[in-house]
């Protein structure tokens, strides 16, 4: 069977992991925000901002890691706007998030156009190269799959562990989860609900922006309009699928990457029979299916979407 | 200590003043990107103003731009009032446009007096179906309609591209992915000779008036607001919440579908995959700026359309990127959100006193 042969090739899994990388960053970022009780629909725009600002920093000569830092700062900045609107002001998280998406997207597009008014083909940068990790690269099967990945993919995998550790093994993580479940109890312990929520949103948004930066600095080497193409929204669906757990977020993103890599390969096999658009639709349809499956038993953070004001019950 | 407390009564000055002030602030903030792009700020504002009010043609262009925004703004306003988060107006617009093309390009070669209503009805129905599905997924499976409507936008756009390369591709279109034109008698008539503004605008204003009346005066509108304010209380009061949400979904989707009909049958005549430069998403800003009031939607659509048309003309004259318009639109959303907060709450300084809580 053709499909089985595809699934057992190293290049297939290497592609899956590559497709999954921006989603891992995005899902982790969205997960942190939601664990603290705030839905962040700014994600789509924050992806755009991360992709644009990271690329532009490298293009201006900041170096690749300089670009990563700039992307994270840009993400944190737009996250901070969302945090101000939704936490101390307690405004609708839906509308504020969409506003941040529109704002971050238009700032990025305007900046790009202003810096490069008349380019027919977007300028390219020298992107991240695959990272050779001495011992791991020599492992059978796993070695070649990982060997083809860049440092940003490694960073994404590392962040899964870091976010898991912080959420489950540190007092800070306990406080973040508590602030998303029962903010008043956190307040009663003398901790700052506002501080925790704002911090979580800023940190989560910085992570999201790295997902965008991966696209312009590792997967591709240039910035295009419309290149994010709903990846942020897919992450929002995957968070629910992952039931707000970093480990399951990794699995969800990898599964998604695998399906996407599979459809690209199927497209070359049966491309003549089925219009290519059917395959292009698949990621979005899959996300909706994943959401429908997961939504029933979803254990939402209890204070998600609920504003909390100090001194009010 | 600083405390936030709700205002007892936000008077008309605050209710109408906040959106106007937000719009003005957002426009004023545009000076920052204008200056950073190296443009003369005063000249730029002048160009924007004359780009809208400088001639009858410019004004007609603004009204043309406002027409789809009234529809998508109404779609968002009606749904958001019931806390049904329809972020899918962009997709529903294309569904409406596709339906208009499906019935309007020769399938039925009947007189305009029958064809035009048929096109309008089919477009509205297609848009309504586009919102009924995510609403079903929410009421039946609990799948968040924000995410499903957003994702459906992408699915529908890809579906449109598929249709434009297949079933509805114009054989006379020289290979371009575009549909055949709508029959002449199926086109919405223009309002002024040699101007592009068309009777879709009249349709949009009528829709706004009906929506305003239904929302404020009808039993349906009363129930809708009750569900929006407190769904569980509404359920206890005997309102069938799911049924109501479906009716809201159908109205909201139909309005978004009409935006597509009006663009195709009023302006372009044929369908391409770039029919809408984000009218669906901009409709959300229009609705929020209008305080979710259908009557207000007309005014805020005129403002947003002015920003777009004015910025376009300024961009042509001065070489500043026309993404400035999107920037102003998004800033006016953020401003009106913050302004809405200060209309509903006030910040009070309180002295910390012993034992007070």
Automatic annotation (TrEMBL), chain A:
Pfam families: BPD_transp_2. InterPro entries: ABC_transp_permease (IPR001851). The chain crosses the membrane at residues 12-31, 38-58, 64-87, 94-112, 146-167, 194-216, 222-242, 278-295. It comes from the Bacteria. The lineage of its organism: Bacteria, Pseudomonadati, Pseudomonadota, Alphaproteobacteria, Hyphomicrobiales. Its main location: membrane. It is a multi-pass membrane protein. Keywords: Cell membrane, Membrane, Transmembrane, Transmembrane helix. The keyword Transmembrane helix applies. It is found in: Cell membrane. This is ABC transporter permease.
Automatic annotation (TrEMBL), chain B:
The chain crosses the membrane at residues 20-42, 62-80, 92-108, 114-134, 146-164, 197-220, 241-261, 281-311, 323-343. Keywords: Cell membrane, Membrane, Transmembrane, Transmembrane helix. It is found in: Cell membrane. Its main location: membrane. It is a multi-pass membrane protein. PANTHER family: ABC TRANSPORTER, PERMEASE PROTEIN, GUANOSINE ABC TRANSPORTER PERMEASE PROTEIN NUPP. This is ABC transporter permease.
């Amino acid at each position: 069977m053709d499909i089985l042969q595809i699934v057992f090739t190293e290049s297939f899994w290497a592609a899956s992991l590559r497709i999954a990388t921006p989603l891992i960053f995005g899902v982790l970022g969205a997960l942190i925000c939601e664990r603290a009780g705030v839905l962040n629909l700014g994600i789509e725009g924050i992806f755009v901002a991360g992709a644009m600002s990271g690329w532009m920093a490298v293009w201006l000569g900041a170096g690749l890691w300089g670009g990563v830092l700039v992307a994270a700062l840009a993400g944190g900045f737009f996250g901070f706007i969302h945090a101000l609107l939704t936490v101390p002001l307690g405004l609708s998280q839906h509308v504020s998030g969409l506003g941040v998406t529109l704002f971050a997207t238009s700032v990025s597009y305007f900046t790009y156009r202003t810096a490069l008014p008349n380019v027919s083909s977007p300028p390219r940068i020298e992107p991240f190269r695959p990272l050779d990790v001495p011992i791991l690269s020599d492992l059978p099967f796993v070695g070649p799959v990982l060997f083809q990945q860049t440092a940003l993919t490694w960073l994404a995998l590392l962040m899964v562990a870091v976010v898991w550790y912080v959420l489950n093994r540190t007092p800070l993580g306990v406080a973040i989860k508590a602030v998303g479940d029962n903010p008043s109890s956190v307040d009663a312990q003398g901790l700052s609900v506002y501080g925790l929520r704002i911090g979580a949103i800023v940190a989560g948004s910085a992570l999201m922006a790295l997902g965008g930066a991966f696209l312009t600095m590792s997967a591709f080497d240039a910035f295009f309009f419309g290149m994010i193409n709903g990846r942020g929204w897919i992450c929002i669906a995957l968070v629910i699928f992952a039931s707000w757990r970093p480990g399951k977020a990794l699995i969800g993103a990898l599964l998604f990457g695998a399906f996407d890599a599979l459809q690209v390969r199927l497209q070359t096999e049966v491309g003549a029979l089925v219009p290519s658009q059917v395959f292009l639709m698949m990621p979005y349809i899959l996300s909706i299916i994943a959401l429908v499956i997961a939504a029933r038993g979803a254990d939402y953070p209890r204070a998600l979407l609920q504003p909390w004001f100090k001194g009010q019950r | 200590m600083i405390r936030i407390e709700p205002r007892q009564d936000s008077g008309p000055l605050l209710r109408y003043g906040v959106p106007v002030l937000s719009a003005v602030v957002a426009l004023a903030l545009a000076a920052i990107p204008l200056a950073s792009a190296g443009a003369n700020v005063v000249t730029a504002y002048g160009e924007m103003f004359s780009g809208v009010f400088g001639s009858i043609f410019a004004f007609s262009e603004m009204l043309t731009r406002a027409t789809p925004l009234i529809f998508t703004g109404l779609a968002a306003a009606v749904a958001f009032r019931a806390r049904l988060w329809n972020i899918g107006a962009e997709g529903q617009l294309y569904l409406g446009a596709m339906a208009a093309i499906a019935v309007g390009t020769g399938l039925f070669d009947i007189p305009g007096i029958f064809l035009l209503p048929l096109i309008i009805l089919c477009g509205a129905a297609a848009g309504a179906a586009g919102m009924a599905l995510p609403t079903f997924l929410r009421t039946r499976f609990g799948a968040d309609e924000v995410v499903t409507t957003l994702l459906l936008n992408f699915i529908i756009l890809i579906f449109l591209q598929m249709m434009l390369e297949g079933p509805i591709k114009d054989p006379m279109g020289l290979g371009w992915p575009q549909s055949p034109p709508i029959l002449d008698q199926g086109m919405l008539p223009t309002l002024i000779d040699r101007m592009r503004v068309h009777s879709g605008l009249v349709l949009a204003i009528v829709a706004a008036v009906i929506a305003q009346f239904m929302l404020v005066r009808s039993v349906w509108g009363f129930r809708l607001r009750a569900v929006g304010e407190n769904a569980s209380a509404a359920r206890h009061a005997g309102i069938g919440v799911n049924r109501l949400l479906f009716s809201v979904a159908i109205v909201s989707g139909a309005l978004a579908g009409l935006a597509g009909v009006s663009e195709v049958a009023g302006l372009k005549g044929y369908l391409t995959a770039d029919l809408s430069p984000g009218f669906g998403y901009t409709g959300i800003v229009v609705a929020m700026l209008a305080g979710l009031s259908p009557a207000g939607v007309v005014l805020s659509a005129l403002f947003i359309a002015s920003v777009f048309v004015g910025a376009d003309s300024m961009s042509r004259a001065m070489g500043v990127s026309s993404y400035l318009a999107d920037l102003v639109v998004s800033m006016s959303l953020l401003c009106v959100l913050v302004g809405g907060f200060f209309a509903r709450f006030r910040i009070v300084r309180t002295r910390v006193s012993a034992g007070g809580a």
